[in-house]
């Protein structure tokens, strides 16, 4: 057991990536990086981390920021509830805890948006508390090395793998062990076709001996994906002003902005859209022209939903109420698929 962690830590010290949040034990910065890296790859998350730290160097700066500024900086990272929770937690830590993060796993767990994994990461990296982190990387490394066939989607899996990691973890240096096992899963023991030939564990890994590397970890099937059909109305009046609205309903993209939306049950054509526009949206302005901006719908994949998105350019007569000009438009936080449309049209 000790040998496993020694070999692992030695590998880590020779192979670890130079990442900005590894140079600190400041809990604010570690919390920020961990929230950003949930459901986001390191290469994608790093520039966001750097721009957040530059905009909000302390938890007080983030707490005092405007939610729209936070969402705008987050734009493109997805899973926007992370950003809203991040902002609320910063306000809680700044205002209720005088800017000091809880210094132990159990109290960190009480923070909004902080689950077991993030709490363990902050507790071990900032305060050297001996709690194991269990994420997808850890499931994969341990299930392969020890040939554990527990379904990682099962409720009991986390407990079993945490107990195993805890046994392996050197209690005097939990932080480096946690960093090492996650990094090993990210760089060496990758999900598909890992290069076992160069692996430091290739003489002791049970999955490799039994030719089961590609079968582990065991994970039961995911939820069914829901298809939704969004038709966005990109309006332009005589002044080239347009209309946007804020998504206030709970669900995807909460508090982000979008164009007026007609959501349909299937892909709809020009006739359907033109018939529905005048009735619904522009009672005060005559529609001059309607143009289909993308013949095929753009498929935007979220974890449990596939959005089939079409943009329709609508030219209207006169001026629209509460119109937004092109410059102002770019200052609002949008879902990335709408932001990309605005940038290229």
Automatic annotation (TrEMBL):
The keyword 4Fe-4S applies. Keywords: 4Fe-4S, DNA damage, DNA repair, Glycosidase, Hydrolase, Iron, Iron-sulfur, Metal-binding. Its cofactor is [4Fe-4S] cluster. Binds 1 [4Fe-4S] cluster. The keyword Acetylation does not apply. InterPro entries: A/G_AdeGlyc_MutY, DNA_glycosylase, HhH-GPD_domain, HhH_base_excis_C, HhH_motif, MIG/MutY, MutY_C, NUDIX_hydrolase-like_dom_sf. One of its GO terms (biological process) is mismatch repair. GO terms for molecular function: 4 iron, 4 sulfur cluster binding; 8-oxo-7,8-dihydroguanine DNA N-glycosylase activity; adenine/guanine mispair binding; metal ion binding; oxidized purine DNA binding; purine-specific mismatch base pair DNA N-glycosylase activity. Residues 36-187 form the HhH-GPD domain. Its EC number is 3.2.2.31. It holds the Pfam family HHH. It catalyses: Hydrolyzes free adenine bases from 7,8-dihydro-8-oxoguanine:adenine mismatched double-stranded DNA, leaving an apurinic site. SUPFAM superfamilies: DNA-glycosylase, Nudix. PANTHER family: ADENINE DNA GLYCOSYLASE (PTHR42944). NCBIfam families: mutY. Adenine glycosylase active on G-A mispairs. MutY also corrects error-prone DNA synthesis past GO lesions which are due to the oxidatively damaged form of guanine: 7,8-dihydro-8-oxoguanine (8-oxo-dGTP). Belongs to the Nth/MutY family. This is Adenine DNA glycosylase. It comes from Flavobacterium fluvii. The lineage of its organism: Bacteria, Pseudomonadati, Bacteroidota, Flavobacteriia, Flavobacteriales.
């Amino acid at each position: 057991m000790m040998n496993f962690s020694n070999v692992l830590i030695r590998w880590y010290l020779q192979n670890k990536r130079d990442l900005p949040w590894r140079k600190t034990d400041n809990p604010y910065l570690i919390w920020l990086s961990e929230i950003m890296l949930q459901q986001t790859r390191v290469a994608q998350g790093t520039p966001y981390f750097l721009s957040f730290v530059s905009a909000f160097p302390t938890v007080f700066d983030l707490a005092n920021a405007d939610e729209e500024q936070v969402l705008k900086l987050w734009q493109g990272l997805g899973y926007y509830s992370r950003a809203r929770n991040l902002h609320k937690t910063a306000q809680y830590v700044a205002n209720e805890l005088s800017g000091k993060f809880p210094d132990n796993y159990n109290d960190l767990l009480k923070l909004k948006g902080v689950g077991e994994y993030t709490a363990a990461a902050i507790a071990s990296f900032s305060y050297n508390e001996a709690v194991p982190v269990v994420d997808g990387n850890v499931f994969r490394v341990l299930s392969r090395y020890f040939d554990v066939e527990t379904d990682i989607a099962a409720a009991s899996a986390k407990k079993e793998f945490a107990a195993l990691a805890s046994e392996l973890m050197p209690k005097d240096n939990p932080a480096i062990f946690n960093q090492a096992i996650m990094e090993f899963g990210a760089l060496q023991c990758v999900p598909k076709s890992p290069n076992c030939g160069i692996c430091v564990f290739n003489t002791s890994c049970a999955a490799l001996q039994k030719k089961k590397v590609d079968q582990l970890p065991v994970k039961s099937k995911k939820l069914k994906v829901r298809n939704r059909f969004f038709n966005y109305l990109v309006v332009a009046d005589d002044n080239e002003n347009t209309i946007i609205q804020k998504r206030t309903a709970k669900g995807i993209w909460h508090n982000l902005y979008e164009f007026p939306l007609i959501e349909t049950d299937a892909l709809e054509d020009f006739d359907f859209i033109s018939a529905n526009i005048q009735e619904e949206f522009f009672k005060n302005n005559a529609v001059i022209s309607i143009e289909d901006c993308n013949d095929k719908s753009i498929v935007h994949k979220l974890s449990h939903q596939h959005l089939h998105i079409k943009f329709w350019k609508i030219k209207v007569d006169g001026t629209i109420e509460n119109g937004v000009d092109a410059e102002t438009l770019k200052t609002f936080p949008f879902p990335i698929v709408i932001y990309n449309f605005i940038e290229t049209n």
